[in-house]
Amino acid sequence: MSTQSSAAAYRARTATAKPMIECRDVQKYYGDYHALRGIDLTIRSGEFFSLLGPSGCGKTTLLRTIAGFEDISSGVVLIDGQDMQGVPAKRRPTNMVFQSYAIFPHLTVAENVGFGLRRDPRSKAEKAAAVEEALAMVGLKGYGNRASHALSGGQRQRVALARALILKPKVLLLDEPLSALDRKMREQMQVELIKLQRQVGITFVLVTHDQEEALVMSDRIAVMFEGQIAQLDGPEALYAHPTSRRVANFIGVMNFLPARILGESATGVEVDVPGLGRVEIPAANISHADPGDEGPSVGFRPEAVSLLGAHQQTGARVTPGVIDEVVYYGDMTYYDVRLDGSAGFDGKARPVRIAMRNVFGREVQDVGTRANVSWSPGSLVLFR
Amino acid sequence: MATGNQTQDRQGLTLIAPPFLYAVLVMAAPLLTIVAYSFLKDGYLTVIREFTLENYRAVWADPIFHKIMLRSLGVAGLVTLVTVALAFPVAYFLSFVVDPRKKSMWLFLITIPFWTSYLIRVFLWKVILGYNGVVNSGLKSLGIIEQPLSFLLYNVNSMVMTLAHAYAPFAILPIYIALEKIDRSLLEAGRDLGESRAMTFWRVTLPLAMPGVVAASLIVFIPTIGDYVTPALIGGGKIPMIANMIQSQMLDQDNRPMGSALAVTAMLIVAAISLIFMAMNRRFLKVRQ
Asked: ABC transmembrane type-1 domain location, by residue (chain B) (predicted)?
């Protein structure tokens, strides 16, 4: 599922956009702990940007430094060209949707949404209309008089959104906003958030540890590990061309097979991969960062290859193997296949995972049957 | 499921039966005796078993009762105000400033005054404030005064001071618990939505701490009204409060029905005031976090 625009549409939308948030060599220490290690980042105006990483990678710290809840130890944070050094949270053009939503329990829904309007010079009636409008925007029209404790998780989240958006911030910061919702609700809110962002045109910065959520919603994603940005790219580029094994492992599933480099040419690198044989990897699919402890390897996504019956053949390259494991998901089946000859240099068997959509007429294969795996050199990524 | 619930209900009732019986025996029974006495006639040194409302009529008509009851309410109200106002900053400090790892140590320190008997603590205030007490001799040795100050002890101020000190932990703890329950991200949300720390305190922290403030107020107000020791020692017996009046009727004058009527009347007044106070704050009390 992808509701997000293609990379081209995104480029058209933000090509002329000015930078909204700029981080220049941002460092943050908590005592001896180095939480942010030189973050350099430009988030464009109108962009849906995600900070993705495992817990403790510094993504929430970075969001909180942008919001003004944390001071930075060194570096510069600019929002809309303004240096934020010493500017308190209340005076920053940002608003936040908290992970716990932080709905004020002693106030009604309308009082929550109107909380930030105290110093707004408009009349009481105009403010009430603005609150009603904000509630309508998040699909909570007529909920104004409800007590906040009577709301469901999804409704609380909408109130938190309305409360932030009513102040017309330049940047909306979202701290793991969907993690407390159940799966169905989460998927629905993902789509709604994207639509809302298009509608209001505000820069959204989302923090999440859920790679699927980041892929679905974002224009661009910064993958963070240990206080540093490992890769910053659009979702498609990030998924298809991870620049390190670590990023490849974090975003979706990737199979890795050891590779021996045979030679380089202008078009790519020729490698020998046990099970796959001699392959030329296209130059665009070569990553030079972080090959891992095991030396060079090639990686491919479970859905970038496909499983054929034992006697089927296609135009692409075909490698035979034995099905080791079958995991049935309803719409998908995952097969773990041991490719013939893949035991390779060190004799260790490395079954590869292959994802097949259960389209009409395609039978689910049994464990132990022989099968052909069809692949093409263009779907392999070399980490060297 | 109905049977399951019944079994559970029975288990629950069995569990609370012993303390419940104990409570009936030592609380409800004496209370009912007092209520019963208050409707009986007083004979000299005996109680005549004859129903009458005369005691209550006498209580309500008695100008001394009016004066003493009003004084008791005034002192208790003042003590509550002073105690809660002083306890709030302590509780706030404890909840928001103290390192979480050191909180239990601080709570422990706050309960240290309880290691000494209430009577001794009250008596110590007498030592501090007395004619030849710590304050007077201190000021004298510093040459600030020549004659000991006589207004320190035996008045309402000294009673308020003593009681406020004695009840401080009772006020700190409920406020502390209410503050601890506040989700810290609410305070960040307040600032994120454009409010200063002070305004966030006023609009978020204080309303959410109100259940603790109400609890603290009642915990201080109710026992203070009926305090007997402090008026006797610190007030010097010259400024009696309602408990002293009841004691005098019950024991000195051996008029148990009259003393009982006084006790029941005072109890009803305190109950009414407490209910009104809670009703005034019901907006804060029904908040569910």
From this structure: 69-279
